[in-house]
Design a protein that fits this description.
The protein has a 5-stranded mixed β-sheet, with no helix packed on it. It has a 5-stranded mixed β-sheet with strand order 20-26-25-22-23, with no helix packed on it. A 4-stranded antiparallel β-sheet has the order 1-3-7-6, with no helix packed on it. Strand 10 and strand 11 (171-177) form a beta hairpin. 11% of the residues lie in helices and 40% in strands. It is built from 3 helices and 26 strands. The protein is mainly β and 398 residues long.
């Protein structure tokens, strides 16, 4: 009997150890890796673009192969991009004066690079914005600059539109915001598209890249980029219902959600912007331009209104919406510092942290806080965050 008891207890012990080992393995497999969202290992911050042209010298009116290779923090080629709006990569190219605009789509090659052929019609500087989404769903915007050899046309200065009305390609488009156009505020724009000949709504618009329209917004200094898409019909109706005030017409958007295409746009900072509304009709894509003068946000506390930002500093505003802009990219040496300006207390960003630079500074409301940009950062992407790691951003020095 004693021997049977010993054997029984031994079997129970072995079974228990086996179960414990199995549970331990499952736990290890399901435990997420440590969060590195604030470091340069985060793909949002560390993903880079290698850009090449063939031939090396780009000349006007000559077919040029534009090649983009996406690299991760380890220098490995990122081959799997998510298909968004029917394409894995969207390339938005503009001339230095924003007079020219091209929406291209590089195609994936066997080596993982993305290539597209294009002939630039004029000489001078162009800026190319690459819009892509990683397999994990993170949207990435990167930019490169390109010089094209040949005759450079006279630069056209941007002048803000007095009326947001434009006619092109057989359609007339009226753009109407739902309020004052100010920096850092989400604004709902409504686009009424009419047939010029009949003066009636153009009901024959075709889907372009899976949507009724695409909207690209770029600042005059070429530093800010926004790629927006239309709201769904249900979302438009819901928003109009929530903001409907029959007794107050004001400047609120009053449109028919069935015939007007609507989109939300947030302008990162004050200044002139060019907006292209893209529509497709009869198989042809029509790029309708508007020039918008974005004002300073009047909700900014009075004591910040007269604050001066050093000329050698790039301003980043801190508000309840986070860092604006949250992604900064420019040539090394163009700015010596970053100037952080916290405009309200409706956020937790009471300090700015550059973990990889070992920099941590307080962000008092209404005061400019400067962060020096070491020359050693050239060619690198560095992340920054608020003290609680809730608001995040990055800077790339090309």
């Amino acid at each position: 009997m004693n021997q049977l008891t010993v054997i029984f207890l031994l079997l129970i012990s072995i079974f228990a150890m086996s179960c414990k080992k199995e549970i331990s393995n499952i736990s290890t497999a399901e435990t997420p890796k440590s969060d590195k969202s604030s470091s340069v290992d985060d793909p949002v911050y560390s993903t880079k673009i290698e850009f090449l042209t063939n031939p090396k010298e780009v000349k006007i009116n000559e077919q040029t192969e534009l090649s983009f290779t996406v690299k991760n923090s380890s220098g490995e080629t990122v081959k799997d991009l998510k298909v968004v709006h029917e394409k894995p990569m969207h390339l938005l190219a503009v001339s230095g004066d924003l007079n020219e605009f091209y929406h291209l789509h590089p195609e994936k090659q066997a080596d993982g690079s993305f290539k597209v052929l294009f002939a630039f019609p004029n000489g001078g500087k162009y800026k190319l914005f690459v819009d892509m989404t990683l397999a994990n769903g993170n949207q990435i915007i990167r930019s490169v600059e390109l010089n094209v050899s040949g005759e450079i046309p006279k630069s056209e200065k941007l002048i803000a539109d007095k009326k947001f009305e434009s006619s092109l390609g057989g359609i007339s488009v009226t753009m109407k915001p739902d309020g004052e156009i100010v920096a850092g505020k989400e604004i709902l724009f409504g686009f009424s598209v009419n047939d010029i000949a009949t003066k009636k709504p153009a009901t024959d618009l075709q889907n372009y890249l899976g949507e009724k329209a695409h909207f690209v917004v770029i600042s005059e200094d070429l530093l800010e980029f926004v790629h927006a898409h239309p709201m769904s019909l249900d979302a438009v109706k819901s928003e109009h219902s929530e903001h409907s005030h029959p007794e107050k017409t004001g400047n609120k958007l009053s449109v028919n959600a069935e015939t007007v295409i609507s989109a939300h746009v947030t302008f990162p900072k004050a200044g002139l912007y060019k907006l292209w509304a893209q529509f497709q009709r009869n198989g042809r894509v029509i790029d309708v331009p508007f020039i918008v003068d974005v004002k300073e946000n009047k909700e900014t506390p009075q004591k910040t209104a007269n604050i001066e930002i050093p000329k050698d500093a790039f301003q980043i505003t801190v508000s309840k919406d986070g860092f604006i802009p949250s992604e900064v990219s420019f040539e090394a040496g163009k700015f010596k510092k970053l100037a952080f300006l916290r405009i309200d207390k409706e956020n937790c960003a009471n300090e700015i942290v550059f973990k990889d630079l070992d920099i941590k500074k307080q962000l008092p409301v209404g005061e400019v806080v400067l962060v020096d940009l070491p020359e050693s950062l050239k060619g690198k992407t560095i992340s920054f965050a608020c003290g609680m790691n809730m608001f995040k951003g990055k800077i790339t020095l090309q």
